[in-house]
Amino acid sequence: MPKTATAVRSASEGLHLTADVLVLGGGPSAAWAAVAAAESGATVVLADKGYLGTSGATAPSNTGTWCVPPGENRHAVVERRWQRTGELADQRWMLRCVDSAYSNLLKLSEWGYPFPSEDDGRLYIANLRGPDYMRFMRRRVLLAGVTVLDHHPALELLSDGGAIVGAAGAGRQIERDWRVDAKAVVLATGGCAFHERILGSTGLTGDGYLMAAEAGASLSGMEFTGKYTLAPHGSSLNKGLPFRWASFYREDGSAILGPTGEPLRNGIGDREEEVARALIGGPVYARLDQAEPALQGWLRQGQPNCFVPHDRAGIDPFNDLFRITLRAEGTVRGTGGIDIVSDDCATGVPGLYVAGDAASREIMTGAVSGGGAVNSSWALASGWWAGKGASTHARRRGGKAFRSEVQPLGQAGLRPAASPRADIAATEVIEAVRNEVTPLDKNFFRTGTGLEKSGERLETLWRDVRDHLQGDGLERIRAREAAAIAAAGRWSVAAALHRSESRGMHRRTDLPGKSLAFAHRLAITGVDDFRIGGAPDRLAELAS
Questions:
Q1: Residue burial 68-96, b: 16+ Cβ < 10 Å; e: rest
Q2: CB of 199 within 8 A of CB of 61?
């Protein structure tokens, strides 16, 4: 029988559990981490901000994976992918990921996940239907004996002075505080979408980044937040595939021209820059008129949710013009996150591990987006590694009793450095950050002058957040989200200013082209006073 967490107290006193491993998050990487830890013999608690199985960016999506079968060809596949990463990825990690992801896809099949069959009868394991996949993983997590706390967002990590020993938070539906004492914690809290209205990303507010930084972990790749995806105007749908067969027009009906004077076709990849320039100038419209009738049927069948906004509006997107926009995706499809220091996804802080989009994916994707496929396989692999690593750490701690003196690490949004002020509201904080990190003319196309101005505004905002933002009761959740978004925006802009070049999705119009001096990753360490470090001789101290 699987081992389960032990309750210390509950009811009116709040919920207090003890376990070997605590997993924070509810997406695929969290599920895989929980299963891996449980199968290693650990008692596991999983606490999710939402409902495990429906929350996060994967649950509402139809996502491919980077599925590479074993064999000599895998080296060539990885090499080809590496060539597109801006020289920042690590081929050893890429190979580890494709091997572990493939192994876990086979596990899914063995466990009974209903993969579709190809014409020859073989299972097609390269695609995962988000709703089915996450429902299946919820069942697997529960079957492994994991204690699942739905709608229990974490607010802060707990430390005994030498290691991370749990986390604490608040229950949304059952209004109670909770605390889990654990010998190891896995952060699988996802990326930061800066409160952009995109599918499945409402709860992705960078909470894990702030908690990790408060514990002493570093982040990297935070400058690579310039990933945007085409979407019908006014919708939350961020699935750009159909725009590969689109033509683009201005509001007056004139065709938008490409760089060589031809009508712009295919808004995917490099052509996104042309669409972005047009959108800065005014409204842009599209028509999927490059898709042949047979392809139209395939698109509707393979990507059905892409057509829901059109069907509701009575629009035939293959024949009618419809207005479009570019949705900012922050570090959800950007690459930044918590830095990994070892093969088991440790963060360098004893007892703290990271998986999925909460981790930096530079080692996998470098300066370009991991999109759905690479990020999906990364979740499969990193969740497994982090769960195993956390369970191993828990065993090393053995029967060591939890210290009575446990320090909660949360600061901004929970424990203001000065007196709380009612005029510092979470909603206004979030909107102020969004004004600096989502506009196309500030974040898709960047300049040193623009980044300096944004950085100054975000530093001023951060001081207000740090000193005066505080919520009571369940409002603590919103305050903490606002603080995390402010911190992520501040780090993103500072790293973008520090990277004095253009590379991948980091586009500096004042510094076009790559520089050999920046052919390395930038790590950020610290919260109030932080430093950005690359190679040992390239350190920049920054103070708020």
A1: beeeeebeebbeebbeebbebbbeebbbb
A2: yes
Q: Are 436 and 461 in contact (CB under 8 A)?
A: no
Report, as an integer, the average pLDDT of 502-512: 97
Per DSSP bridges, beta strands 523-525 and 529-533 are: antiparallel
Q: What pLDDT does residue 535 have?
A: 42
Neighbours of 323 (CB within 10 A): 13
- Helix ranges (H only) for 398-512 are 426-437, 448-468, 475-498
- Residue 32 tokens read as 């895989």
What pLDDT, on a 0 to 100 scale, did the predictor assign at position 2? 74
Pair 303, 241: CB distance under 8 Å: yes
Q: What is the pTM of this model?
A: 0.95
Q: Report the distance separating Cα 325 and Cα 279, nearest Å.
A: 7
CA distances from 465 to 72, 278, 421 (A): 52, 35, 10
pLDDT at 538 over 50: no
Number of H helices, E strands in the chain: 13, 20
Rounded Cα distance between 529 and 325, Å, is 36
